[in-house]
Amino acid sequence: MMTAAIIPHRPVAGVWTSSDGRVSLELRADGRFIETRSDLSDAFTGVYVLVGETLKLFEDHGAVVSGRLVDGRLSLGTP
Questions:
Q1: Where in 11-63 does DSSP place strands (E)?
Q2: pLDDT (tens digit, 9 = 90+) per residue, 22-45?
């Protein structure tokens, strides 16, 4: 029998866009995310977990990106 770990996280919904407007990240309340780029829609998709201020993006093809969400400000690539 396979069991899955349940991580209590805070669902959020919103779209964050890079300062140059070329990349946007949509976090959906259902726990999914969609990253789009100016030259490629749906560049990356997957699920996210937000625990406290720590954000983990688990891309559908296996990549994991860490970030932080503090006072509505999103930063990616942070430990």
A1: 14-17, 23-27, 32-37, 40-51, 54-59
A2: 989 999 999 999 999 888 777 889
